[in-house]
Write a structure and sequence with these properties.
The chain has about 280 residues and is an alpha/beta fold. The protein has helices at about 20-25, 60-65, 85-105, 140-160, 180-185, 185-200, 240-245, 255, and strands at about 5-15, 30-40, 50-55, 70-75, 110-115, 160-170, 205-210. The structure holds 1,4-dihydronicotinamide adenine dinucleotide and D-galactaro-1,5-lactone. 1,4-dihydronicotinamide adenine dinucleotide binds near residues 16, 116 and 172.
């Protein structure tokens, strides 16, 4: 529906995850063959248009084998919540370098990278920001996504590999709380955004916020206007039901910061017996 042409083989990492399971179906029109990968178990291939390859993103040689023969990459795999640094380091930091190094070696020219709003999570919910603001990561997880954006920048400047980094808000079937009234990204809008990320020419490294057309959105996408991303959905139909729920205190991080509760996780490693 959105694709102007098809890739021969499109790699989707994180294919066993919440979004990966949705995208496995929804990105199918974009490629003759979908190569699906995760470290976790995936549902069996639905036909010859699907290739399943188990792979730990922190395993450099496995990632090279995974990327060989692919024309583009939708990189959704990795740790998607706050975790101790050692875990984030392997999956997200080593993982993203492995993906780009493999892209360089195997001639892949386009990546769509699942970054996150946690790259800018310490901005207040009262602020409206664009993609040019100073990043304010709210967690080891947010730091890893910020690093991923820097890796994307570097691989464009050094090797011409183009990336669209999607700072996704909250992509779930429906918004569930007040914060999500601002951060929600419907699956249809996510698919549209990935399509723009894959098929828009000359994106260099573009950072785009991934949110639907929510009434009280915090993010201004003028810096990514060339993508033509035009979200069609909105959290508004859920407003009445969500606003009927008890409101968090005004000084609760979930009500204060764009990154919500991620700004308050940790620190890790200072429990008795667990200090390095
Ligand atoms: P998820 O946690 O459901 O899926 C991530 C997948 O990555 C999992 O299936 C997991 O097994 C896989 N994975 C983790 N470590 C791995 C490793 N070392 N090697 C290979 N695979 C590994 O997360 P979800 O919600 O599907 O998100 C997908 C991507 O989008 C993630 O990168 C996440 O950070 C990003 N994102 C998601 C948002 C959302 O609202 N769902 C918001 C912002 C960003
Ligand atoms: C993310 O980056 C997470 O992957 C997702 O699970 C949600 O927590 C989302 O951000 C959010 O901020 O709501």
């Amino acid at each position: 529906m959105f694709a102007r042409y098809k890739f021969h083989r499109l790699l989707l990492t994180g294919a066993a995850g919440g979004l990966g399971r949705v995208l496995r179906e929804r990105l199918r029109p974009f490629a003759e063959v979908m190569r699906l990968s995760d470290v976790a178990e995936m549902a069996p291939a639905q036909g010859s248009f699907e290739e399943l390859m188990a792979c730990d993103l922190s395993d450099k040689s496995a990632v090279h084998a995974l990327v060989a023969g692919c024309d583009a990459i939708v990189h959704m795999g990795g740790i998607s919540v706050e975790r101790p640094f050692e875990e984030v380091l392997q999956a997200n930091i080593a993982g993203v370098v492995n993906v780009y190094e493999a892209a360089r070696c195997h001639g892949v020219r386009r990546v769509v990278f699942a970054s996150s709003n946690h790259v800018i999570g310490f901005y207040k919910q009262t602020e409206k920001i664009d993609a040019h603001v100073r990043r304010r990561p709210d967690s080891f997880y947010g730091l890893s996504k910020s690093f991923g954006e820097d890796v994307a920048n570097f691989y464009f400047d050094r090797y011409g590999i183009e990336t669209v980094s999607m700072r996704i808000g909250t992509s779930v079937p429906a918004p569930k709380d007040r914060r999500m009234l601002s951060t929600w990204l419907s699956y249809d809008d996510l698919v549209q955004l990935i399509s723009k990320g894959l098929f828009t020419p000359n994106v260099g490294h573009t950072v785009v916020y991934g949110a639907s057309a929510n009434r009280d959105g915090w993010w201004d996408n003028h810096a990514a206007a060339h993508l033509g991303f035009a979200p069609q959905d909105s959290s508004e139909p859920w407003r009445t039901e969500i606003e009927a729920l008890a409101a968090p205190a005004a000084n609760d991080p979930v009500a204060l910061y764009q990154g919500g509760v991620f700004t308050a996780y940790g620190p890790f490693g200072d429990e008795a017996g667990d200090v390095a």
